Amino acid sequence: MVNITVNGTAVQVPEGTTILNAAKAAGVDIPHLCYLKDLNEIGACRVCCVEIEGERNLVPSCNNPVFEGMAIRTNTDRVRRTRRINVELILSQHDCHCATCPRSGNCHLQNVANDLGILENPYPSDLVTGARAQWPRDFPLYRDTNKCIKCMRCIQVCDKIQGVHVWDLSGTGSRTRVDVSGNRRIKESDCVLCGQCITHCPTGALRERNDTQRAFDAIADPEKITVVQIAPAVRTAWGETLGLTPEQATVHRMAACLRRLGFDYVFDTSFSADLTIMEEGTEFLHRYQAGETRDLPMFTSCCPGWVRYLKSHYPQWTDRLSTAKSPQQMFGAVTKNYFAQKLGVSPDKIYCVSIMPCIAKKQECDLPTMHTEAGKDVDLVLTTRELVRMIRAERLHPEALPEEAFDSPLGTYTGAGVIFGVTGGVMEAALRSAYYLVNGKNPKAEAFTAVRGHAFAQGWTEAEFDLGDGAIVRTAVVNGLGNTHHLLEAIAAGKVHYDFVEVMACPGGCAGGGGQPQNLDDEERAAERGKRLYALDQCSTLRFSHENPEIQTLYREALDAPGSERAEEWLHTDHHG
Ligand code: HC0
Ligand code: SF4
To answer: Locate the 4Fe-4S ferredoxin-type domain: which residues (predicted)?
Structure first.
């Protein structure tokens, strides 16, 4: 242990602790902008600088460890002035139109500037002219150079966690800025649209394309029947920036909000997650039993960030992707083909909206392969953050609303469908039903918990199961594309052998998705949100996708059996398209 003082208070901390964390242990909060634990400890913003007794220069506290006898001052006049000047200089290169910024009220820079009482800036504004106009408006990820504070968090998360290297520094000196790496345009880059750069951005420099007005327009159109689906992971996070407790922020209260917003029918993507299991589980068993090694391992296909990554980095393995569409797309296809018929309306009257924790889903729904004869499966995708903005725009108070049930017949789901939103969930749900298909009876619902992954851990989870009948299935579950790269390289080198692999691009799976709320405390919440999904599964009466009564009715009335001609037409796709 090391003995130090912080503003005169003695404290003992473990060796190697940074000044920032040591101060925290002494109850002193040092402001910072660029620092992100374990990811970005580069002292770029210089807002966290402190004075050390005996040292001539101030030092950044985020990347300097304490030493025995260190006397730290975080609140001297010199510290206060320097911190203020550093923030003023950042503000001089920042577009400070907070009223039109999606991060207003939830922005690290705004907070720090307000806390320091900066009411005017002595430094002249120095913004990049025309920066906004250069960014493509139709791309699902939007970047505003003039909101960027060059903290480099986006670069670090894209490099260290995702290994995709989309962002880099360009220019020199005061003209240094963050841009797409290698002088490329964003559309030419191999950005997979995971959105991790957005959730780790401290300001409004990165955000999703704003599609909320398109949703309001559809709701207002008397010719349209609006059908909305809620993804599994959204329920774990939508209340965070609305100040709701987890007990208040239930999925049924979200259903009530969506009805107050004016959507005609409200459903749960967990229903079509169950449907995905029927199709993907059956497909896996066919591939596995056929023993065609060129088709194995079979990769899950429900994460469009991952599908984009595979197609750009390992195109030779595209055929190993399951042909099953993602639950989002299956839901749209069933809505336009089956639900429209139930309502007795033409599919083109239906406008299908998804609430997703994801940016890549905005692009997935626009793929030319994601439609049937009834038209585009899904018309519009909104992120969790956009849903929150709509709730705020309509001045709804979710806590005062009653919990409301989903509509029928696409509103019933099992616990297996709910855990899709957490890393390992798709695999666990698939194994539960695959076991049933092989043995004609259910396993214990908890039989496959060994596949559960961990957010922000390095590597992947592997497990082997005897599904019965001599079927030993080797599985791997991975989250984060940096980990995925290592897994794929190990498979390519013949170091590991699997039959079925689940990949989710975001750390922790969709619970940590790029469309989820951004929180000012910078805590990674994916693991905590994932636990909530497992708890929901545990208290569900139905825990096996094949036991979902509405799925059974759907097969009876329209699809016949998994993999049938109609199921192929509605629910599967060609990833080469
Ligand atoms: Fe996911 Fe999904 S679980 S990708 O993570 O499979 O976005 O939550 O909706 O489609 O169900 C996201 C979340 C989904 C889909 C489902 C899958
Ligand atoms: Fe989207 Fe989920 Fe994939 Fe992230 S893990 S890119 S949120 S589907």
So the answer is: 139-169, 182-211
